[in-house]
Each structure stands twice: as structure tokens, then as C-alpha cells.
From TrEMBL:
This is Peptidase A1 domain-containing protein. Pfam families: Asp. It comes from Rhodotorula graminis (strain WP1). InterPro entries: Aspartic_peptidase_A1, Aspartic_peptidase_AS, Pepsin-like_dom, PEPTIDASE_A1, Peptidase_aspartic_dom_sf. Residues 98-422 form the Peptidase A1 domain. Belongs to the peptidase A1 family. CDD domains: pepsin_like (cd05471).
Amino acid sequence: MPSFAVAALLPLSLLSATALAAPHRSSPPQVVRLVGQAPATNDVTLDQLRERHADSFARLANAVKRGIQAPSAVEKRGSVVHVPLKLHYNEYNGLDAHAAEVSIGGQNLPVLFDTGSPDLVVPVDCKFGCANGFFNTTASPTFVKDGGDVSVAYGTGVATGYVADDTVRVAALAVEKQVFAAATQLSTAGGENWAAIFGLAPGGGAYTGGPSFIQRLVQQGSLARNEFSMSLKSSRPELVLGGVDRGFLQASLITVPNLGAASGIWLAGMGATSVDNKVVDGTVSYALIDSGSSFNSIPRSAAAAVYAATNGTLWKTQRMAVAGIEADVDIYTVPCEPSSTSGRIGFTFIGASSSTPVSMSAVSNVLEYVDDVASESCFGGLYGANVELVPGSGMQGALLGMPFLKSVLAVFNFDDAANGVSMAFSGVRMPK
Ligand SMILES: *[C@@H]1O[C@H](CO)[C@@H](O)[C@H](O)[C@H]1NC(C)=O
Ligand SMILES: *[C@@H]1O[C@H](CO)[C@@H](O)[C@H](O)[C@H]1NC(C)=O
């Protein structure tokens, strides 16, 4: 299958799990979850979901500013911890996923760090074929089953199980009694190189009751700075908890307010789209920053303008889910060996500290070969789709996933109580 099969990885905005058949512990009031490519267990239509969750959607539209308060009494003396990531590519060089080993109850498991979802979801006592491992509950003396049932829905499937806790360790940082979803069923049973999903959305713990690992670190003052940063650049991919690796910075950081703080997601207001610093489209959109998505999506007119300027060709318009919303999606092909010095695709963000576009290289936008021809053509990682991510907002939705994060250093900060949780991006000037 061509790239849209790849594309379905984990588009993830958050939609209250009440739409799913299985029981759950609590329905998260602030969280918006959009379910797409409806899993087999979900016989509710997308329209019904949107209707049911109109309130949550409206809340997101209002983008109420409410950050996660840093504990002011705690003096910052915590750590900066580097977590090397392993990238997994598809047949060309499109980034499919990234993973890192994390210890849960003393057992190491590869996890996908997902800025698009709120909870740690761990397959346990696997009876459904977990190629990349699972957590053995009886082998951990510190494991506690908290009891409540839980269901976590992703754009590509659903995890069901129960709420549990155990000691979770990421590199040198350990949190005891960290709550997580122990998944006994997982319709997307891991990826190519990961077994568990490690949610890093600001509204952590939306399904399990939380707080999430990152929230616990913030609350405990465990971090040197209340932020984490991610770079998926192939030379040295890593997640940094508590700061930024200055070695990655090739341009100054551009700070972007998080419009999704109240809804527990990382959401930027996106303004103009440019190619090589020249504006090609001015459609305004809400962009979900999702490290669990293997593709980007922007409004159709913006994508068309980008590909007109970068030698792309419309391959097909395909019905598929973007951030959980079904839409007609324009998929383009691009040269597999694009120019390394031109064709940089840039975005400017609303309320940002600079109007300089944050750019991704043309190379980062190449996904994988179009496999039905021995061609020189590859799929572009940027799709065109008109989706209303925030219903009622009258604004288009966008999704910035791995192809974008391959080109930038992204910082996710929990400190800025006045402006809501903020993000910062530094674009690359050159690929690699
Ligand atoms: C889990 O661990 C227990 C105790 O170490 C062991 O007896 C059991 O076989 C393990 N279960 C699986 C499914 O690996
Ligand atoms: C588009 O094609 C032209 C002509 O072959 C080439 O000069 C240019 O660098 C290409 N642009 C990109 C972004 O690849």
C-alpha cells in the first residue's frame, strides 16, 4: 500500500472516550478526541461523535488560556535528561516512528513518545501478539491494579484495559506509582519498533485520571526547566526532558502560544504557508503538533500552492482520516531526490515571537516510493485536506507530525501560566 497506509499511524487529537463501547473510568471534561478510521469496536458515526462532543469542540474553539501551573514554591534544581531515540524508516526515508526504551516496573519496553495523546498505554500480559514486547504484571513486585476499566481511542484503533500503576523510569528520571492504562486489548498492537505509547500531551492523564509522567515531573520540580524538547533529525534524534539541547539550535527559537492548553493538546494557530520564505498561501488553520503522526496535513489550497512551487504532482484524492476526521485528502508525489537547498516549506504561527517562517526541508517532506511503478516518484509527507479540527471555529485544521518534526527542534513548555502552555520551534536552514 502506498503512503496513506503508513499515514494512519497515530493521528491523535483527543476525543472523549464516551463514544466507545467499552466502559471507562471517567470521561475527561476538557479533552477533545476525534476518532477517525473508526475501530471495529466503534459503531458510532463520525457525525454522531462530533454532535456528542460539540461542547468540547466549542471549548477548544474558544482556546481558553489555562496553563498547567508550575509549582512556584519549588526551586528549580532538577535535571536535564537526554533520551536517545531510535528512528524507524519506511522503504525510502520516510519516518515511520521513533522509539526509546523506558522501564516500567523494572521491565524495559520500547515506547513511542506521542505529543498527540495524553496517557501512557502499556500492553500487559499479552495474548494478542505483541511483537515488540509487553509488560508482565506478575513479574513486577511494585505493580498495582487500580481497578477501573479504561478505553483509549486513537485515530487508528483503540486500547482497552484497566488503570494500573507502577514505577516508571525514563533514563535517570523515575516516578513511583505512575498511573497508566494497562491494555489487554490493543487494536493497533504496537508499531514497527515500539510496544507502548507514551503520551506527552499537556492534558496528561485524560483517560487514566492522571497525572501523567511529565505532569508528575513538573509538579515535583524534577526538571531543570518545566519543558521537554524533541528533535527527530536523523543525525542525533532525541527527547530532552527538562530543557533544550543547544547543539540542535540552528536558528533562534520562535515561541508559539499553545491554543490547545485548555483542551490538553498542543495546538498552534497557523497563518501563512511559504516556500523558500515566499508566501504561497494565507489560509489560517489550527495545527495539532503530533509526534505520533507519520504525515503532515494542511488545507488543500495551501498544499496545492506548496507543491506548485516544489515540483509536486497531485497523485490522487483519497478518502481517509486526518487527525481522526474523515476527509477527501489530496496526496502528492514529489521527486525522491529533491533539491537540498531549495523547496523549504515554511509556516508562520499566530501570536509567535517572530514572523519568520519555521521551515521544513524538501528532503524531510519525502515519504516513500510510489510502489506501483519503478519510478523516481515518492509520496510527499504533506497532504492537503480541509478538516475542521475545531468545529464551529470556522477555521481549517492542520496536523504537523513527523515530517515536520524531522526538520525542527520543537520545545513544549509547561511554565507560561499567563499565556497557556507554550511551544517553540526552531526551523532548519539546511537538511540533515
Ligand atoms: C510472567 O512472569 C512470571 C513470573 O516471573 C512467569 O512465571 C510468567 O511465565 C510470565 N508470563 C509471561 C506471559 O511471560
Ligand atoms: C524543481 O525543478 C527545477 C527544474 O528541474 C529545479 O531547478 C528546482 O530546484 C526544483 N525545485 C525543487 C524544490 O526541487
